[in-house]
Structures are given as C-alpha cells and as structure tokens.
Amino acid sequence: MAAGARPGPTASIQPPERPRPRGRPEPRARLRRSARGRTTDGRSRGQPDVRANSRREVAPTNTSSTEPLVYTIYEAASALRISRTKIYELLDSGEIDSIHIGRSRKIPADELRAYIDRLRSKEEDQ
C-alpha cells in the first residue's frame, strides 16, 4: 500500500460479533400500525373493535341461569361437599355416571341430582 492510500472494501475492519449474555431475551420488535388501525399482531390500539358490537347473543341451552348442565370433577366435588377422591370412587363404582367431552370428563347435573335422590331413598328405607 502506498502512503496515504485508503484500504479497499475488502480490507474493512469490523469488530467481532459478541454473543448475547445468557438469560437475556432477544429484543422485541416494535408493533407497526396497519392502515386499518390495527397493530401487526392483530390487536387494536385505542380503538374499539367494530366486530365485537355486531355479535349476536346466543340463547342459553340451560333454562336455569344458576346451575350448569355439566360439572367438572372439581366442581362436582365442591357441589356435593366431598373430596375429588370420593368423586372418583363414585365414578369407578358406577354410582355416578360421567360423559367425555373431548379429553375432559364431565358429570351431568342430572346425575348428581339422581345420586342425591338415591341417597335419600336409602335413608328413608332404613
């Protein structure tokens, strides 16, 4: 190289890239607004969702607003004031029937009422 000559593009010196410290997450990208006032992740920013007001109300399938049609195991145990273990014992013995919705096990409200009625009739017979 001649004196006073600048280095060419291949001779550019860049500092080595340092690794990110452990436990520190990558910086999050900023959300950009689209033309419709929404951010790139789909949320509205300060504007109400127009579609939310246009949704129809669906009539409930249950006539009683206080009692559900089906109970989870935990809810059935709470309703009967017994432990979850006891509910599983009743289900295994066949005293209470259950249904499966997907992978979850539900107990119909009618089954709980029928179980209570059977307990009452047993006490009356004694």
Question: What would your notes on this structure say?
Answer:
There is one protein chain. By secondary structure, this protein is an alpha+beta fold. It has a domain at 66-125: Multidrug-efflux Transporter Regulator, Chain: A, Domain 2. The protein is 31% helix and 8% strand. The chain is built from 4 helices and 3 strands. It has helices spanning 50-53, 73-80, 84-93, 109-125, and strands at 70-71, 99-101, 104-108. A 3-stranded antiparallel sheet has the order 1-3-2. The chain is elongated, with a radius of gyration of 33 Å.
Explain the layout of strands and helices.
Elements: H1 50-53, E1 70-71, H2 73-80, H3 84-93, E2 99-101, E3 104-108, H4 109-125
Helix pairs in contact: 2-3
Please state the overall shape, judged from the principal axes of the Cα atoms: elongated
Radius of gyration: 33 Å
Segments where pLDDT lies below 50 for 5+ residues?
none
Task: Give the strand order, joined by hyphens, for the main sheet.
Answer: 1-3-2
Give the biggest sheet: 3 strands, antiparallel
Order of helices and strands: HEHHEEH
> What structural class do helix, strand and pairing data support?
alpha+beta
Amino-to-carboxy terminus distance: 112 Å
Helix percent reads 25-40%
β-sheet strand percentage: 5-15%
Text of the CATH class of one domain: Mainly Alpha
The CATH topology of one domain turns out to be Multidrug-efflux Transporter Regulator, Chain: A, Domain 2
Average pLDDT value?
Answer: 78
Can you count the helices?
4
How many strands?
3
**Secondary-structure arrangement, i.e. CATH architecture of one domain:** Orthogonal Bundle
